[in-house]
Amino acid sequence: MRYEGLQRVLAEHGLRFAVEDLKKAYEESGARLQAVWDRNEEVPIIDQIRLIVDLTSSGPIALDASWSESLEAAYVDPVLSIPPKLSTEGTAVLETVRNRGYKVGLISNTGRSPGVALRRLLETYGVLKFFDATIFSNEVARRKPDRTIFDRAAQSLGAENAAVVHVGDNPEADFWGARRAGMQAVLLDQPHPYASQWPPHSLYALARGHHHKSAAEVPSNWRIKSLTEMPNLVDELFQKPP
User: Fold this and answer.
1) What distance in Å separates the CA atoms of residue 214 and residue 172, rounded to the nearest whole number?
2) What digits encode the pLDDT tens for the residues 152-166?
3) CB neighbour class for 239 (10 Å; exposed up to 12, middle 13-18, buried from 19)
4) CA–CA separation, 54 and 46 (whole Å)
5) So what CATH class is 90-238?
6) Are 78 and 5 in contact (CB under 8 A)?
7) Is there a contact between 206 and 31 (Cβ–Cβ < 8 Å)?
8) Is the pTM of this model over 0.70?
9) CA separation for the pair 104, 75 (Å, rounded)
10) 141 Rama sector, left if φ>0, alpha if ψ -120 to 50, beta otherwise
11) Are the C-beta atoms of residues 165 and 237 closer than 8 Å to each other?
């Protein structure tokens, strides 16, 4: 859908590319984006599109600023048409945590889908209402494990970093990133059921291949196998000094 959408919008402005060429450039762009993300930096959506167009044409092509809205819609909206699946445990766990009186924040690195689209997804799933703050890397211009994004989340929640428990499934970005930011941290050490289906050039595979920390480096008492374990562990952590 992304290839075809970009092809359609570009053709409307006189730039004609084959879908296969756009697909090849799209796949090639993943490694270049990952190289930037490895520095915990961000690439705006329109710059991702420019990269794909330049790779397709084997050289820079000027994209008029007036095309940006339609190009970004073609690039971003497919995630809303074919959304990822919501965790079967997610809604109940979020509701439990909120009912226990905790504030809840979300910190997320983005890829080809920016925060504005991901909030729409969360709203569609009916879970956006559980979050007091949603922090997306493309809006902060820094990515986990950079401390900046963790600090922004704590500030948005009106909390000191030491009073925050961060739960995530990436040993480096989530667990060690949060710990270095002065937060308590829990690793969701859970297999990814569809991991084998992602091709090597996908952003999922590229990101997972760039880990410098493994789940084995996280102490077992800071790991959970299911989100359903999280509310009680959070209670326990808040009863202990950081």
Assistant:
1) 7
2) 999 999 999 999 999
3) exposed
4) 12
5) alpha beta
6) yes
7) yes
8) yes
9) 30
10) left
11) yes
